[in-house]
Each structure stands twice: as structure tokens, then as C-alpha cells.
Write a structure and sequence with these properties.
Elements lengths: L31 H34 L1
Length: 66
């Protein structure tokens, strides 16, 4: 893809939720309270990085279209 277009931007988000409702499943390898704590701390940072990546892509498109 990077040969035809600009190289893709990669964002990583870790320790994400696997289920919408953990109370409906018995999965001992995931701790919903731990995931909730991690999300509360890191999700705003993930959103900011995604916003910045989108802004960078839009700027690149504007520059290329001139």
C-alpha cells in the first residue's frame, strides 16, 4: 500500500476489552476491573494519538492536492 499511496500510519492500543459485558462470560484470563482501570488511564491518550494521526493524514492529503 505504501508503494501506491503514502505509507500507512499504525496506532497500537493495548489491553483492550474483549467483550461488551464481562458478566455474561466466564473467562479467568481477563480481569474486567484491571482492564477498566487500564482503559481509564490510557484511553484518552489513545484517542489523542488517533486524532493526531487523522489530522496528519488530512494535512498530507491537502498538501498533495495542491
Amino acid at each position: 500500500m505504501g508503494h501506491t499511496f503514502t505509507p500507512p500510519k499504525r496506532l497500537c492500543a493495548f489491553n483492550t476489552y474483549q467483550f461488551d459485558h464481562y458478566d455474561r462470560y466466564v473467562v479467568e484470563c481477563f480481569s474486567e476491573p484491571d482492564k477498566a482501570e487500564y482503559r481509564q488511564k490510557h484511553f484518552p491518550e489513545d484517542l489523542q494519538r488517533a486524532f493526531e494521526a487523522g489530522a496528519e493524514m488530512a494535512d498530507n492529503i491537502r498538501k498533495e492536492s495542491k
